Amino acid sequence: MSWPLVWQYTLANALLGVVPALLGLVISIPAGVACARWRWFYAPVLSVTSILYAIPSIALFVVLIDYTGLSDTTVIIPLTLFSLCVLLPSVVDGLRSVPPAVRQAATAMGYGPARRLLRVELPLAVPVIIAGLRVAVVSSISLATIGQLIGVSSLGYLFIDGLQRSFPTEIWVGLFLVIVLALVCDLILIIIRRALTPWAVRS
Amino acid sequence: MITFDRVTKRYGATVAVDALSLEVPPGKTIVLVGPSGCGKTTSLRMINRLIEPSEGKILLDGKDVQQASPAALRRGIGYVIQQAGLFPHRTVQDNIATVPLLNKWGKDKARARARELMDLVGLDAGMARRYPHQLSGGQQQRVGVARALAADPPVLLMDEPFSAVDPIVRASLQDELIRLQAELHKTIVMVTHDVEEAIKVGDLVAVFRPGGHLAQVDTPERLLGAPVDEYVADFVGFDRGIRRLSFFGADGLDLDTGPVLPATATAGEAQRLAVPWILVTSAERRPLGWISAAALSRLAAAAELAGAELAPIGHTFRPGRDSLRAALDATVLSRTECAVGVDADGAVLGVTSYERLRDAIRAAEEAADAAAAGP
């Protein structure tokens, strides 16, 4: 176990945690806007994301190997799908958290629907969306380690290598690094939220 | 000028507004009032097309509002809502600058305008960079009014603007609105369920009855003095006779100067007036207090009134500024059954009596009724 290699695994793991959550957000924003706009649409979409979440990650990896090979993409696609289960409801809840009086005021001031969404509703949904993003990032970081089973590098290497060599310290180091990585990413998201929402009520 | 021309709004089988025809003269404040579900809010929201009518037309300065694009129409109409509806993510100045920014004034000009309006509605300039949650309810509502006025729209719609604040703040916001309107002359349509508020701020009051029918549109004084039917009479309240007196000036009162004497007069002179109470005044004719006939009889005939013990005068009223209601109130509260009318300098003009009040009230009511009946 060499430290430069461990550093490399950590970075790879960070990437596999953050990229799926961001892709999930890119999908969830338009989908969430649609679900908030047309309420009947939300229940079926929510069922789909829950079913996706119920699929074991390893099963999805194996299916995807045929199409995307043993690449990062094979891990990123399932983790993106899993993140929808948290991110979509947080976008919908965020949009629903906008007080009706504020939405009505925006309309009455002369905002069209698109501008109202971009300038009023989405900015006000940011705290709830980032709360969802924090869960998505942390869970993706953790799930990404399973990708090691199909040879996609992450801190999961330390678990498998430690197991094969009966070297528990390596497993403990891996576990510790996964937790630290998750905490660091979480902290960054908290800082981003504070920067984006100077207006929010701090308790 | 806003004209409702047989406007009906239906939701399925329910009629929210039933063939409403109404004219709002330019520069006036009209208050729509009625119980919940009477269609007053629906009527208001049809003006800026937050709600579309099922039938009929609404004209704004002769132009059908249906012909304009909703966003453009709304930018020309100020809108104030309950609980202010401020944008929580924008500072006070950026909230106020909303419509100017939508109208592409540029940030500097829009913010300068916002500062102007903060001054107009009585907000401290130091609040410009605060966020709405850092303000009190009354301050938020002032920001709401400033935001509605920012692009200087000729028309202002106010949807229960003061219902979410406590009574003291509400009264001061109402006074502020009356002051602003005297300066700005907007065409204001306001909705409230509070008939007192309607009578206080409205040039005209439109009373709605359940089912979206207009029961009566009139000046506040006419509404109190001549409700068209029992529903309106009940709605405006049981003490409407007294409240109507607010609209009649106390200058119609013929004040009695008989029982008024300077402090230099003697008890003997006072007794010769043979009245139960005498008002004693200073050299500047300011009221000093009342002295009763019983107290006079205990004084030596040559003693000056200046040395006597006087009963307090209570509160005075000023004909020309105060109403008959104020004069009546002062009379009711006075233990002498007379209240003191004073001029702007506080000098005594004379005193009231119930008989004199009665005559003034009759004359004022007859004049108002005659004015309403004949052209």
Please provide the ordered H/E string of secondary-structure elements of chain A: HHHHHHHH
The mean pLDDT of chain B is 91
Shape of chain B: elongated
What is the structural class of chain A?
mainly alpha
CATH topology of chain A: MetI-like fold
Query: How far is it from the N-terminal to the C-terminal residue of chain A, by CA?
Result: 45 Å
- Helical amount among residues of chain B, as a percent range? 25-40%
Rg of chain A from C-alpha positions? 20 Å
Can you tell me the residue ranges of chain A where pLDDT is under 50 for at least 5 consecutive residues? none
CATH class of chain A: Mainly Alpha
Unreliable sequence segments of chain B: none
Total number of helices of chain B: 15
Q: What is the CATH class name of the largest domain in chain B? A: Alpha Beta
Strand-residue proportion of chain A? under 5%
Give structural attributes.
heterodimer; A: 203 residues; mainly alpha; MetI-like fold; 83% helix; 0% strand; B: 375 residues; alpha/beta; Rossmann fold; CBS-domain; six-stranded mixed sheet; four-stranded antiparallel sheet; 15 helices; 36% helix; elongated
